[in-house]
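QUALITY CONTROL LOG
STEP: pairwise intake check
CHECKER ROLE: data steward
CRITERIA: each record must contain a sequence immediately followed by its structure tokens, with no blank fields

ENTRY 1 OF 2
RESULT FIELD BELOW
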Amino acid sequence: MAGHSHWAGIKHKKGKVDKQRSKIFSKLSKEITVAAKLGDKDPAMNPRLRSAIQAARFANMPKDNIKRAIEKGSGTGETGALEEIIFEGYGPGGVAILVETMSDNRNRTVSDVRHAFSKFGGNLGLSSGSGPPLAATVISLITFVQIFPLEASCRAFLCFIFAHFE
């Protein structure tokens, strides 16, 4: 019978699983790169790098990929351009929000976050002395939210936050 190959079914299932693993590996690789860039490349001396490596090992990421990510972040490998950017802003009703991002393109990230804030009735904080105080000076209790699954976008997260606090 045409089209009923056992291998075809296996190929499609394997492709789906590989796509999911590659998303997880790329996220973990970025985190390892940033951790190595911000601190020491030795996991014993850098707790953020140590926890990122533990997460990568838990996800069965190959040791070569982990080593490459550390080298990229520490500058001994290929040039790593990832940076961590923190945005401060206000949601509807004056709710203070801190958004922590990792990006290789600062300008694109700024425009995406600004667009998401303005779309849902918020605004980014001002860096000058005019206007209300920035979110970092207002927030006394910080709740850390990590978004899973990986397909969740910044817009979806802000939509959730803004809808929750309205």
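ENTRY 2 OF 2
RESULT FIELD BELOW
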Amino acid sequence: MAKCQQDKILSLQHNRSHFRNQLMTFRIKLTPVFLSVIFLIVSLLPQLLYSQPLIHPPGDSVIINGKAIWYESEGKGEPLILIAGGPGSSHAYFHPFFSSLSDSFRIIYYDAFGTGKSETDKKAKNYSMANDVEILEGLRKTLKLKKINILGHSYGGFVAQLYAVKYADHLNHLILCNTIPSGEDMQVAMDYMNMNFKNHFPEGWDKLMKLRKRGVLASSPEHQQAYNFPGLLINFYNPANASKISRLEPNLYNADLWYAMAGKDADFVVSGEMLKYDVRQKLRTLKVPTLVIAGRFDRNVRPSLTIQYKKLMLQAEFIMFEKSGHFPFVEETKETIEIIRRFLSEKSLF
């Protein structure tokens, strides 16, 4: 090999080696910075994605039974009306998780009387479960829908069950999501949540007990401020999934409805209309095709309460999501939507 060629090769090898060394030095110097930035971006990604204002489908306010009720609609096809929980929650937490169904169904969201963008009332006595049922029926009539499918989540499931019992002829399919069939179960659920509060947050519990010894009831602002039991503990399999629900929406929750229906000390003693709620016997004769959805790690409405639907509704399909809490459509969105899509596509045997 000619010496000039050897010199060129050696020079090239030296340059490559020098470049490689410089590159390694560059990597060593910047890797900690890059890792920090990447970690920050990844940790903030859920907040960046979901803590933005929601993009809502087109909506309108309609008068139902003399009350202004807000609803939104997307897609075409057989209607599926979503009933939010609480009582007192707006429909906002359903977004954007059900939008993918709009390619085959008309998805209808609405704020019940006293919630979200719908009309509110200063008189607590005007809020009731019976009124919520009639608002739903009024919405069906106002939108000129013959038969509907409904999905009730949590307290929305109470409304859905009461509606199904009264207006079964207007239903194609009933979906019950993380809900229970009686006020007795509601008291059991509250006792369980308070047990978790006491055991996991003893400092907050002690403060709360001091208030209660003074006779302060759950509905008082002072009690509500002290009752700061983190929902992450009871509502989610993975607490990080809570960030998927936007918190930037106005009027997300109206606590007045909860205390109006469940009593002034409802966080501890369920009373009033909520305690009287009981559809267990009526469900046994209900002929509407039903899908029951539950979350294995739901400490709000725990599986030992939801499992009873297997005996109460022999015609129902029961699905337990193993990596979900109180919001399977948030934590296992794809799987939940696929099951709902398949269920709604099935023709009724009744």
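INTAKE CHECK: passed for both entries
DESCRIPTIVE NOTE, ENTRY 2: Residues 1-50 form one domain.
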